[in-house]
């Protein structure tokens, strides 16, 4: 509640505001390291879905989840749908479509150079298939020992 007694919410109610091209994110690939973690499920994926619904992320923003678990796109999308459905967001039929169009996964089993080279090729392939310009955002969540 704000100082003047009004209820303040991070979730918009009612109609979503119109977003100008200037306010919309440029086409990019967002790579999330530690994508299967609790923070990703509870906070990051719901936030990305919400700002997509607010039209602040365009159709040409793709999310590539990276983690050590042996999973494929289908499994990660299923996890994302479950996480979003159990969040406190208003979801609708567009949820499944959003996951299919925007959410991808790559298992990074070790921190060896070859694994990162393969990840780089996966990113470039995703960008080619979706005609993305090569803009990339990397979100790293992990223990410090993994980054040594």
Rg calc: 17 Å
CATH architecture: 3-Layer(aba) Sandwich
Q: Biggest β-sheet: count, sense, barrel?
A: 4 strands, parallel
Domain count: 1
Strand order of the largest sheet: 3-2-1-4
The CATH homologous superfamily:
NAD(P)-binding Rossmann-like Domain
| General form | globular
Give me the secondary-structure category: alpha/beta
Binned strand content: 15-25%
Poorly predicted regions are 6-13
Question: What is the strand and helix layout of this fold?
Answer:
Elements: E1 28-33, H1 38-53, E2 61-67, H2 73-86, H3 94-102, E3 103-107, H4 113-129, E4 136-140
Parallel strand pairs: 1-2, 1-4, 2-3
Keywords:
alpha/beta, 4-stranded parallel β-sheet, Rossmann fold, 148 residues
Kindly describe this structure.
The chain is an alpha/beta fold and 148 residues long. The chain has one domain: Rossmann fold (3-Layer(aba) Sandwich), CATH 3.40.50. It is 38% helix and 16% strand. It has four helices and four strands, in the order E-H-E-H-H-E-H-E. The protein has helices at residues 38-53, 73-86, 94-102, 113-129; strands at 28-33, 61-67, 103-107, 136-140. Strands 3-2-1-4 form a four-stranded parallel sheet, with helices on both faces. Helix 1 (38-53) links the parallel strand 1 (28-33) and strand 2 (61-67). Helix 1 crosses helix 2 (73-86). The longest helix is centred in the C-terminal third of the chain and has 17 residues, at 113-129. The chain is globular.
